[in-house]
Amino acid sequence: MTNPIYVTRPFLPPLEEFTEYLEKIWDSHILTNGGPFHQELEQKLCEYLGVKYISLFSNGTLALLTALQALRITGEVITTPYSFVAATHALWWNNIKPVFTDIEPETLNLDPDKIESAITPQTTAILPVHVYGNPCDTERIDEIAERYGLKVIYDAAHAFGVKIAGTSVANFGDLSVLSFHATKVFNTFEGGAIICHDENTKKHIDQLKNFGIINETTVVTPGINAKINEFQAALGLLQLKYIDVAVDKRKQITETYRAALGDIPGISFIWDQPDVKHNYAYFPILINPKEFGKTRDEVYEEFKTNNIFCRRYFYPLISQYPMYCNLESAQRGRMPVAEKITQEVLCLPIYPDLGAEDVRNICNIVHERPSPHRR
Ligand code: T4K
Fold it and tell me: Which class is domain 244-374?
């Protein structure tokens, strides 16, 4: 039996390079609470990403929770049902009602055409997700938000390093939230960040992630503990050395998949957008069962029998989970695009170390279609 292949495998730099950082931590005994690696990583990430202010977090979910607190979001927030559940949970934890609207068939991101009819007097913000790292229609979403006086927090967990016309995708909206989880393009084991546009907001977010403490005797706001530690920050500094090569390898794998699978009836992809620098975080394919002759779940199971563990990101929809399915906006039939895509999507393995032979094997499994009489 060959080694299992998972949907992703975290990139890790050479261990001896990380050991050098560990030695420094052992010397200084500074393990957390805004130590030197934390400070250095914030500065280096601002430079690398092309953003003005960044605040590092211990994970993306705490960054989302804090972003909502920082902007004092209340009432209702319009969001996508087609994503990982973290952002909707963050709304719930802030006592905010999520209002789901449908997605665009081309990008699988929140459809700007569906937003306005979901706005009520209780709506205070929009929380779109750059799903798979493909940018939302930021121009239209930000324009709608401005017209209705709403805030925008982008969940940019998948979108590390993505640029629109040379500008970081994280510069749109009021705040953007990144994830540096093990499964992400840029990982610090676990980690995350909020990107904002001005010094005062950065200061406020920094206070919120550290209990609201500003000195030994002063607590100015009811904060939480969401700080990144020095081990995570050290790994981040090292990862920056390799990130461009890692994204390049992802791009090559994406191109191989597209070339090998592009002509199969019933298989379609999400394509690159013009003037966007993509990060190739995921490789989702959409399987139309009528045209392809097999369902997504049949293909998923076939992969499993070959020791390959693809993932159905994002199935089920967030709106179908028991804690959300009774909301009015979650009712079946209201989001036809998302309801269709969630049945068809399969994310194939993609990570920098995925070998060419493995990619070929994965493509061959997709090519093993049923004979015409089965269809
Ligand atoms: N917003 C969005 C849009 C997100 O996608 C996420 C996280 C967040 C917010 C929240 O950010 P964080 O709080 O996580 O920073 C995974 C990740 O756990 C989750 O972080 C991620 N999204 C989501 C899309 O995917 P699972 O349940 O699929 O993870 P898991 O453990 O099954 O991992 C997938 C595969 O990766 C495994 O089969 C093997 C491989 N793997 C995983 C880990 C954790 C490794 O090889 N090594 C590892 O350490 O959720």
Answer: alpha beta
